[in-house]
Amino acid sequence: FSADLPWVKATKLFRAFLAPDGAGGGLMRSVDLEKATQVVFDFNEFTQKFSEMDPESDFGNVLGANAHMTLQCLGLALCSMRRDVANKDSLGPLANHISPRFVRFRPITSIRQLKSIHLRRFVSVRGNVVRVSGVCPLVKRADFTCRKCGELITKSIPDGKYQPPTHCENPKCKGRQFRVDRASAVTVDYQKIRLQEIDESTNSINGAVPRTIDVELTGELVDLVVPGDVVTVSGVVKSLTTESLQGRGSRSKGKGRESSLLIMVIEANAIENKSVVVKGDDGNDTASRQAILETQQPECTQDSALQYLTDSSQRKQQKEKSRVFNENAQKNDIVANLTDLDFKMIVKAQSFGFEFLVYSLCPLILGHEHVKAGLLLALAGGTNSAKTGKNAPIVRGDAHVLVVGDPGLGKSQMLKACATVSPRGVYVCGNTTSKSGLTVSMNRDNSGEHSLEAGALVLADRGVCCIDEFDKIQYEHAALLEAMEQQMISVAKAGIVCSLSARTAILAAANPIGGHYNRSKTILENLRMSSPLLSRFDLVFILVDKPSTGTDERIADYVVDMHVQKRRKKSRKHKEPGRAKITASSTENLREYLRQKMGEFRDPLPPEMLRKYLAFARHYCHPKLSRPACKILQGFYLELRRKGAEGDSTPITTRQLESLIRLAQARAKLELRDIVTENDAKEIVSLMRDSLLDAFTDDIGVVDYQRSAGMSMSKVCKTFITRLNRVSKQEQTTEFTKEQLKNEAQISKVLDHIPNFDDFISILNDQSYIIKKKSGIYKLM
Predict the structure, then answer these.
(1) Where is the MCM C-terminal AAA(+) ATPase domain (predicted)?
(2) Cβ–Cβ < 8 Å for 533, 479
């Protein structure tokens, strides 16, 4: 080739740069050229070394403007270096192919900003993986044999579009029919994923539809992501026609003229996955898929695997390297981009304490401080800890909260505020959500292959999923059982069996049946919800709209004050007269304490700053329980067990104890502490007590620990009397003995919902449903 060709000059320049004595020779020290099929470079380090060799050139601009030629020349330089150092007899069929990959390419371009000017340029985008197709072979080059003369023609297949030769290259042959040799075809693994831009607060407020873009993965990049992952993809933006897409194994023949409308896709060069981790030998998260890609480990063979298992020192070094890469990969983008001013604001907010954070969450809604406290604890989350045994499952650290109440009390506003301030939040409405929209859906592409598309719970992995109008999805509740406890979503559709991570905290809001919460009924009767689903919520708050002169005046003043043209500059102090002062040490009534503390603050923490605060707390704080805190939580749990055991069935299980631990850890995490103190445990006990009292209190104010599940007493009486009326018509009698009544109660399963049958009969007698005669016979009225 002529030495004046641009690609020849570029190849020689890269070869001199990566030579052992070159400026970038240190980048190749850990690379085994004889076995490597890819070489991963850090973009910042590569650019810095390249500028030392040639200060006048900017490698970033060169790569961005002419990406294809730059990558091909760099790959050609690597292949020529391998031929110099490797034994030619040991080189396989892939000796002429090494893929150079660049990670941490900056700046990151928003998916919404990708336009036609970015075509053929090298960019880096970040988004959620919402769709993943299967892996299939893509033909890059194929041999065609002329059916007339047997001439062999080798032709490249660009973009995977099948195009046989138009005529035979033999000048003596005019054949136009060819037979493809599939055995000699050169193929590469191919997979397509779809990225959706990360929903920012500005886009959600403006009502903008999230943009998506398809990404093509080839070679070593396939099977590195699953639906729900947050990834950063570096690659070349290119355009394809619809006919090119149909040519990749499509059932359509693709005849006709090519369309002038192009579809923009990204040909991936490198992937940085910051969502999925791989569990190590010690049971902890020690490596990530990004670490597997970036460490550029040599090809694993049986000999190297045996050496790895027998060499303890090598295993320790590998764990340490994986741990370092895991820390970099798992660091949240919000935490990584914190400035000095952000750290000062975080320290200042931490000094105000937990009460100030409660005040800053949804300040547009006055009151409901205990509900805001519960939602804030769910946003912070507990600590994921493994049980005894290195292969034991991980105990979930995410807390689930359910808010039930009358319409117009601000439930939806609080959920939207939680989705806004959460580092990774998804907000959905129950009346427009299906089972597939919550979990995973299965789609079929043009080639007939099935692909997985992530739903709301999968997209909210390691974040918060806010579900409004929770009562409107009563037929889809079964889909949430596995996600709320095991934090996994199992899929078995169209021959695909897999499990996707759904490590998310669910914040739900529901309206009771009839528009008003009926205290004479249980929560299950007010919502028509199953008992297993209700037991998975750590906190259940019931909001009832009760007329109150003092509360109504405070709310009216607050609402009017927000709508005046010139807001009065005064402190928002809404103290009710006659209330005794509650100190910080008195945590027996957290609701009253928070209500009084709200009057001491003036300006809330901005939502953007609260989001950074929560991201910082979730990433750096992993609290552990102290001995005094353990005793308080354990004592409260045993108290609930004793009270719940007074009846035949009890709703109190070990889930309540795990909920107490999670909430206590979240309470310490919100103040950036590593130890759960005794005061934290007392506040959580107070909050849990308020939640249980709301759920177990009947219409006359009596606390019944059997009311969280089953039927209320009024419904039990109605069911039993309906049964007696049916039997009375069949037997033509209105008189029953006590044994007959007990037998009918057992048949109608009424005995499962009453603690004492004699007391139940006395209640029916007092309410004149049945009348007891002198002979011990009961007459149905």
Answers:
(1) 353-559
(2) no
CB-neighbour burial class of residue 163 (10 A; exposed 0-12, middle 13-18, buried 19+): exposed
667-698 as b/e, with b when 16 or more CB fall inside 10 Å?
bbbbbbbeebbebbbbbbbbbbbbbbebbbeb
In angstroms, the first-to-last Cα distance of the chain is 108
The CA distance from 188 to 220, in Å, is 9
670 token code pair: 């919100």
682-724 pLDDT per residue, tens: 989 888 888 877 665 554 444 454 444 455 566 677 777 887 8
Residue with tokens 């049971």: 283
Please check whether residue 144 is in contact with residue 252, taking contact to mean a CB–CB distance below 8 angstroms.
Answer: no
**What is the rounded distance in angstroms from the CA atom of residue 734 to the CA atom of residue 744?**
14
Spell out the alpha helix ranges (H) of 311-408.
312-330, 333-336, 340-352, 354-360, 369-380
Q: Which band of pLDDT confidence, cut at 50, 70 and 90, is reported for residue 645? A: low
CA 558/CA 451 separation, integer angstroms: 51
Q: How many CB atoms lie within 10 A of CB 123?
A: 21
111-274 is a CATH 2.40.50.140 domain = yes
State how far the alpha carbon of 468 is from the alpha carbons of 514, 545, 688, 692, in Å.
17, 19, 22, 22
Cβ–Cβ under 8 Å, residues 750 and 720: yes
CA angle 109, 115, 119 (to 5 degrees): 90
In the block, tokens 């036609």 appear at: 116
Residue ranges per structural domain of the chain: 6-103, 111-274, 277-328, 336-620, 624-696, 713-780
Cα–Cα dist 119/234, whole Å:
14
Give domain 336-620's CATH architecture. 3-Layer(aba) Sandwich (3.40)
Q: What is the pLDDT of residues 480-526, one digit of tens each?
A: 888 888 888 888 877 778 888 888 999 999 888 877 877 767 777 77
Average pLDDT score over residue span 459-470:
88
The pLDDT, as a whole number, for residue 251 is 46
Q: How many CB atoms lie within 10 A of CB 127?
A: 24
Average pLDDT, the chain: 75
pLDDT in tens, 174-206: 888 888 888 888 888 899 999 988 865 444 545
pTM of the model: 0.72
- Residue given tokens 């299950």 in the structure block: 524
> Domain 624-696, what fold?
Helicase, Ruva Protein; domain 3 (1.10.8)
588-604 per-residue burial string, b: 16 or more CB within 10 A, e: under 16? eebbbbbbbbbeebeeb
Q: What CATH class has 6-103?
A: alpha beta
Weakest mean pLDDT among 117-121, 284-288, 342-346, 494-498:
284-288
Q: Sort strands 675-676 and 440-444 into parallel, antiparallel or unpaired.
A: unpaired
Q: Identify the residue with better confidence: 210 or 194.
A: 194
Band (217; pLDDT cuts 50, 70, 90)? very high
For 380, the token pair is 């912070």
Closest to 435 (Cα-Cα) out of 488, 396, 489: 489
What does residue 461 show for φ and ψ, rounded to 5 degrees?
A: -60, 135
